[in-house]
Amino acid sequence: MSEELQNLQQELAKCQKENEQKSEFLSMIAHQLRTPLTGIKWTLKMLVDGDLGNLNEEQRTIVRKGHESSEQLVELLQELILANQSEAWDFQYTLAQTPLEPLVDDIITEFLLEARSRNITIKTEHENEDTNIHTDQSKLRIVLQNLIENGIKYTPEGGNIIIHTSNDSSHIIITVSDNGIGIPNTDHEQIFSKFFRASNAESRHAHGTGLGLFTAKKIIQKLGGTITFTSKEGDGTVFTITLPKKSLHE
Ligand code: ADP
Q: For strand 160-167 and strand 121-126, is the pairing parallel, antiparallel, or unpaired?
């Protein structure tokens, strides 16, 4: 290989690394902003609902506007996170031994406030307690974040989300179930396509990018696994991830 070509390749690898670092930085900032903002949103909702004492009409109108603005900001942040993640599946994969159950429990804590503000319960069911998988922890985190986020987003107030983990000698299985709006049969085929949103989601929930499931599928494929779902409109949805305990790709 000529020296010039080698230099060019090194330069390209350096640029890619810088891009990945920038993207990870943006993602970290967006995640860190989301938690306190969700706290503010929840507090304003409690004020609007009268949980912290009665407000007069004028006060309630002002606080409601604040609550709506905070909701828009949380949505915008989520879109920023997703747009940023939608390229992350193509970044380098760093595999390491990862304890599965603590990872799942940790991801869930990020969503407890958001779920509580919508009166939705999130429950984990682990069939084992000490499962280790050889995988890229941050990529798997992105997938689970997207599925749980969707579960909350597409489940009406008072609903339930259950994250169940199990494994056999060579694979782990994670399911994320909700009893939300479900996915119409006619949309099943396209659900993992880039930018696709089902008709019932678009009409009920204006915000969304259609990037979350596309990204999730790409990552799971890269990790050597599969992601499938069953869903009935109005009844809820179950996403199932199957991953080899030892991922093949690096
Ligand atoms: P979005 O930003 O629109 O949520 P996703 O790629 O994450 O994008 O999901 C694509 C579409 O799949 C959503 O717009 C929605 O129609 C549907 N969907 C995903 N998860 C669920 C779910 N848990 N319940 C119902 N519909 C879902």
A: parallel
Which ligand 1 atom is the nearest neighbour of the CA of 178?
A: 23
63 lines ligand 1 (CB under 6 A): no
Residues 118-158 pLDDT 10s: 899 999 999 999 999 999 998 999 999 999 999 999 999 99
C-beta 236 within 6 A of ligand 1: no
- DSSP-derived secondary structure letter, 47: H
- CB 210 less than 6 A from any atom of ligand 1: yes
Return d(Cα 159, Cα 180) in angstroms, integer. Answer: 7
pTM over 0.90: no
pLDDT, residue 249, reads 57
Q: What domains are there in the chain, each with its CATH number?
A: 3-88 (1.10.287), 96-244 (3.30.565.10)
